[in-house]
Amino acid sequence: MRNVVAAILLFISLIAGVVGTTLQWLHHAAHSPETTTELVRGIATDRLFIESVSSRLVQTLTEHVPDAVASIPGAQESLADAIQAGITATIDQPEVAAVWQRILNDTRVQLVSDLGSYGLRGGTPPAVTIDLAPIASVVWQHVLSNHPLIAAGLKDVELPAEIPVQVTTLSPQVADAASGALQLAGLWWLLMIVAVVLLLGGLILATGLPRWVLLAVIGALGIVMVWVIQFLLTMVNIPVSENTIVQALGSSTVRLLGQSLSAWYTWLWYGFLAAVAIGIIGAITTKVKGRRVTSG
User: Fold this and answer.
1) pLDDT tens across 229-277, in order?
2) CA of 53: how far to CAs of 102, 104, 249, 272, in Å?
3) Strand, helix or coil for residue 214
4) For residues 207 and 14, what is the distance between their CA atoms, to the nearest angstrom?
5) SS3 for 165?
6) pLDDT tens digits for 169-196?
7) Which residues contact 204 (CB under 8 A, 6 or more apart)?
8) Which residue(s) pair with 165 in the sheet?
9) pTM of the entire structure?
């Protein structure tokens, strides 16, 4: 009976450890700028995202060209080519990466804040919006610096203060789930303590050989669980959107967050592997000692 109770405690410890690790990752992803740093690195090489942003910026910037210039034959096409060249030339530059990081970091902070407020007071579910104005300013300055003829005619053009792109508006169900998950994420440390206490309690309660067998079995189950979760993360996709910027940014975000969570499980995987090794060694040692006692 003691070993049955010990097995239950160890299994609950396994679940608490995996859930606690997941919540720890969520808390880190929601409150750390490292998340947006990795995202910027990803989108800087995402051709679909670059093409989508280029198309939106070309559209926005050409809309602010004076009619006198726009009416010149070939002017719109030349300007569009110059803007696209400016985007291509600056997209992987450190200063542009810093701008992207600031934009996405501001979006992350605002979303977490909005979800927190929504969880406390309810109301309208928050929307996720990014502002392309800082990127447009960098690209426009590059165009003016590298195209004297364009600079001569358009140096006084004022760009819009904001170029908002709405990524998505969260549904009430998603907003409720996200705000609840963020609140729970702050309690990750409590689940980890519960996991450790139950692990120690289960090992103390178990007797003799079953103690080590249970430890090895729980470790093996943990490894399988981590593998299954990591596999499922590779299968996650977002719904197709007509907005190519939304589609590209969403796909990059989902992919990079999945990779981040999968990597976060690595230390847990090693912990489970250690549990299997310790369990096997303990079982063999206990068995050998038992034989010696019997033969003696």
Assistant:
1) 988 888 877 666 666 666 777 777 778 888 888 889 998 999 999 999 9
2) 16, 14, 10, 44
3) helix
4) 19
5) strand
6) 788 888 888 888 889 998 999 999 999 9
7) none
8) 130
9) 0.79
